[in-house]
């Protein structure tokens, strides 16, 4: 008697199914960690980012803008050599040197936690220990590998505003 078991020449093998599931899991993990653009760089977590100044920071100095954006707080609230996290707006404003203010996304580029504090010249994430330099948002300590995206601010009349 002839074998009547259907044959599917293109049916998936167990190895192929496992490999496809692993690839899908990797894609999901990369998306959860911020993903990447076609260049392989981490994609910003916050789509409100704006162009940074030529020096790479989103710096505003006293009298450098007309305000008009979301007011974050007083410039006197941001210590020289330190910074202030504005968790509701998901930004961190730093003052690396007197009168020079910079602003970055407060969303860690490692796994999307909100940075918690600024001390010793570093913006610190509580989740996995990543730290970023207050002057330019670059990574000081991993596991994050991408810098914090710069945000545009203005400092005018003693107030800091998102542009």
Q: Key features?
A:
163 residues; alpha+beta; Rieske Iron-sulfur Protein; 2 domains; four-stranded antiparallel beta sheet; three-stranded antiparallel beta sheet
Structural class designation? alpha+beta
Pick out the low-confidence regions.
Answer: 23-67
**CATH architecture descriptor text of the largest domain:** 3-layer Sandwich
Count every beta strand, where a strand is a DSSP E run of 2 or more residues.
10
Strand order of the largest sheet: 5-6-7-8
Estimate the global geometry from the Cα principal axes.
elongated
Question: What integer is the average pLDDT?
Answer: 72
* Distance between the first and last residues' Cα: 81 Å
- Per CATH, the superfamily of the largest domain is Rieske [2Fe-2S] iron-sulphur domain
Note the main sheet.
4 strands, antiparallel
Determine the strand fraction and express it as a percent band.
Answer: 25-35%
Q: How helix-rich are the residues, as a percent range? A: 10-25%
Describe this structure in words.
The protein has one helix at 14-32; strands at 71-74, 82-86, 91-97, 100-105, 117-119, 122-124, 131-133, 139-141, 153-156, 159-162. Helix content is 12%, strand content 26%. It has one helix and ten strands; from the N terminus they run H-E-E-E-E-E-E-E-E-E-E. The protein folds into two domains: 12-43; 71-162, Rieske [2Fe-2S] iron-sulphur domain (Rieske Iron-sulfur Protein), CATH 2.102.10.10. It has a four-stranded antiparallel sheet, with no helix packed on it. It has a three-stranded antiparallel sheet with strand order 1-10-9, with no helix packed on it. The chain is of the alpha+beta class and 163 residues long. It starts with 13 loop residues before the first helix and ends with a strand. A hairpin with a 5-residue loop joins strand 7 (131-133) and strand 8.
């Amino acid at each position: 008697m002839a074998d009547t078991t259907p044959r599917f020449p293109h049916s998936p093998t167990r190895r192929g199914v496992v490999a496809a599931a692993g690839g899908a899991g990797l894609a999901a993990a990369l998306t959860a960690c911020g993903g990447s653009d076609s260049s392989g760089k981490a994609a910003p977590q916050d789509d409100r980012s704006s162009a940074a100044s030529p020096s790479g920071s989103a710096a505003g100095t006293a009298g450098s803008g007309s305000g008009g954006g979301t007011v974050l707080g007083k410039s006197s609230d941001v210590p020289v050599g330190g910074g202030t996290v504005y968790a509701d707006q998901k930004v961190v404003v730093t003052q690396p040197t007197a009168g020079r203010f910079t602003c970055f996304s407060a969303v860690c580029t490692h796994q999307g936690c909100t940075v918690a504090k600024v001390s010793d010249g570093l913006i610190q994430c509580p989740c996995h220990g990543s730290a970023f330099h207050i002057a330019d948002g670059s990574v000081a300590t991993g596991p994050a590998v991408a810098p914090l995206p710069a945000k545009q601010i203005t400092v005018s009349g003693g107030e800091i505003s998102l542009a």
